[in-house]
Amino acid sequence: MSAALSIRGLSAGYGPIAVLQGIDIEAAAGRLTVIVGPNGAGKTTLLKAVSGLIPREGEVLLDGARLSGSPASIVRRGLGHVPEGRQLFAQMSVLETLQLGAWLLPRGERSARLDEVLAAFPKLAERRNQLAGTMSGGEQQMLAVGRALMNRPRMMMLDEPSLGLAPKMIEELLKIVLRIRDSGTTVLLVEQNVAKALAIAEFAYVVERGRVVLGGSAKEVLASEEVRTAYLGTV
Ligand SMILES: Nc1ncnc2c1ncn2[C@@H]1O[C@H](COP(=O)(O)OP(=O)(O)OP(=O)(O)O)[C@@H](O)[C@H]1O
Ligand SMILES: [Mg+2]
């Protein structure tokens, strides 16, 4: 079920502005890989480029096969993307949002999948008729994750799902991320909570100014002097 994602020599930017310069990242099948880095490093740009939302150079492979074309065709290949800032429609209910997320599934499978996702997110089930725009930040983030899960992705990218959430909610979101991995979906997670993210991930990369400056097992990255001084404030 899970798929490996290989990003090789990826460069991307916005018009004349080059942001990413030759990024190499491997997200191993069925594992949790974390990307950390300062604001403006290019993390969101990287996920957008992988999803086909902005043009890119270089290679992106899903289970060894080139991933290219429109964003819709990339989703069809099994890539889910929970974008930065959730990007929900405020006027749509929880149910409507999830149903819309299942656009890729055959009609006959949609209601069974909806039941599965609601079972996995009891909070969403409780609030199924509430409008997305009236939910708390944490609930909205869960909804964004649930929506991406509706299509049964083999590989899921999440862009700072814990942004702006209280510590307890951050823990809950990270538990959800682990459940996604444990259910057999490869996860590539961008996260600002460096210590928490590295504690639960198998692999990690540090991106700074559009380049990968460090990569390896999450343990190695956590132990590196670079991360301890620049990101964790300890030596
Ligand atoms: N639509 C855009 N047009 C022009 N420049 C952009 C655009 N989006 C992002 N950038 C620039 O690209 C660079 C990387 O931004 P990006 O959002 O990828 O960083 P990030 O690592 O995700 O940061 P953060 O941790 O704050 O989310 C920044 O300098 C940003 O100003
Ligand atoms: Mg970002």
Structural overview:
The chain starts with a strand and ends in a 5-residue tail after the last helix. It is built from ten helices and ten strands. The protein has a domain at 5-86 and 156-230: Rossmann fold (3-Layer(aba) Sandwich). By secondary structure, the protein is α/β, with parallel strands linked by helices. Strand 7 (155-159), helix 7 and strand 8 (186-190) form a beta-alpha-beta unit. Bound molecules: adenosine-5'-triphosphate and magnesium ion.
What are the key terms here?
four-stranded antiparallel beta sheet; 235 residues; alpha/beta; six-stranded mixed beta sheet; binds magnesium ion; Rossmann fold; 10 strands; binds adenosine-5'-triphosphate
Question: Which sheet architecture does the biggest sheet show?
Answer: 6 strands, mixed
Bound small molecules, by name, code or SMILES, are: adenosine-5'-triphosphate, magnesium ion
Under the CATH scheme, the architecture of the domain at 5-86 and 156-230 is 3-Layer(aba) Sandwich
Number of strands: 10
Cα-to-Cα separation, first versus last residue: 40 Å
Poorly predicted runs of 5 or more residues:
none
Structural class by sheet pairing and helices: alpha/beta
Report the β-strand fraction as a percent range.
25-35%
CATH superfamily name of the domain at 5-86 and 156-230? P-loop containing nucleotide triphosphate hydrolases
Briefly, what CATH class of the domain at 5-86 and 156-230? Alpha Beta
Global mean pLDDT: 95
Shape: globular
